[in-house]
Amino acid sequence: MLNLNFKKQIHFNAHMGRMGNQMFQYACAKAIQEEQGFYCSLSHLDKIKYFQLDKREIIVNKVKAFLFFRLWKKIWGNDTLNTNLDCLQQLYQDQLISIVKPTTVWGFFQSPVYFDAIKDKIKKYFTVKEVYKKEYNSFLKKNGLEAGRYIALHIRRTDYKGFVVPGLQGDDFTLPSSYFHQALVKINNHQNWPVVFVSDDPNAMDELFPEIEQKIISRNNEITDFLILQNAGKIIISNSTYSWWAAYLNDHSGADVYCPKYFLGFKEQKEIPVKIYPAHWNQLAVM
């Protein structure tokens, strides 16, 4: 680990996006700090409260953020790097590591490229706290499920209707049901394993997938649904960083990940965000 240079500071504004995006920001910040010797903080860690994170992270982050605004920026000044949605279409590694004085950063940084060098540590930081696993274990027992022996399918719908991404077509980024059906066909034993549906619109699952007999529809909280996805033997993700992270943290032997090619750019067949997928994931065309 490099020695910290207190003049090289990055404060990530974590108000953009949801849990998945804050996980990307945290992972990016930890990698820059450990690999490049920066002093990094996030505006808050509320959206990732479920995870163990680094030792004493909540308190340490608050102290670092306080010092950033009350001391360091007054000594050396303050810059702003606002990548907004542009960082979905290019990587900002060079811009980040070129920072030479306290800088507030806005952006998404949704690629494992930013933190691949410390991915084992990142996976450890994102270990779910034991207190949040009780409902997941109860869900398994209630439905006769075994971790690593079911298919989990994530469908994001509600906020993606009316969702706009500058530079991309339309205002609806929900994936067509044909993508999910295609993924299920790719999974050879899908008729033998139960399928668990995780969605922000659970009431639509019966209508969209009437042919699946062993269908279990989750109506759990955010972190229980995350654990359902993370512990599946086969996981079909949507174009959402929430299920992306669940898949990335899935360490079950033989687990397969199926994902929509181009992510948010599926309408234009343009990779948005760039380099978001690990090489071994199964990318499926969205028709």
How is the secondary structure organized here?
Layout: E1 9-12, H1 19-36, E2 39-42, H2 57-76, E3 79-82, H3 93-97, E4 103-106, H4 119-125, H5 134-143, E5 151-155, H6 177-186, E6 195-199, H7 205-208, E7 215-217, H8 222-230, E8 234-236, H9 241-248, E9 256-260, E10 282-284
Parallel strand pairs: 1-2, 1-4, 3-4, 5-6, 5-8, 6-7, 8-9, 9-10
Helix pairs in contact: 1-9, 8-9
The helix tally amounts to 9
CATH superfamily of the largest domain: Glycogen Phosphorylase B
Shape from CA axes?
globular
According to CATH, the fold-level topology of the largest domain is: Rossmann fold
Instruction: Please state roughly what percent of the residues sit in beta strands, choosing from under 5%, 5-15%, 15-25%, 25-35%, 35-45% or over 45%.
Output: 5-15%
Quick recap:
By secondary structure, the chain is an alpha/beta fold. It has nine helices and ten strands. The strands form two sheets. Strands 7-6-5-8-9-10 form a six-stranded parallel sheet, with helices on both faces. Strands 2-1-4-3 form a four-stranded parallel sheet, with helices on both faces.
Short key terms for the protein model shown above:
Rossmann fold, 287 residues, 2 domains, four-stranded parallel β-sheet, six-stranded parallel β-sheet, globular, alpha/beta
Description:
- With 287 residues, this protein is an alpha/beta fold.
- The protein has two domains: 9-125; 130-284, Glycogen Phosphorylase B (Rossmann fold, 3-Layer(aba) Sandwich).
- It is 32% helix and 14% strand.
- The chain is built from nine helices and ten strands.
- It has helices at residues 19-36, 57-76, 93-97, 119-125, 134-143, 177-186, 205-208, 222-230, 241-248, and strands spanning 9-12, 39-42, 79-82, 103-106, 151-155, 195-199, 215-217, 234-236, 256-260, 282-284.
- A six-stranded parallel β-sheet has the order 7-6-5-8-9-10, sandwiched between helices. Strands 2-1-4-3 form a four-stranded parallel β-sheet, sandwiched between helices.
- Helix 1 packs across helix 9 (241-248) and helix 8 packs across helix 9 (241-248).
- The protein starts with 8 loop residues before the first strand and ends with a strand.
- 37% of the residues are buried.
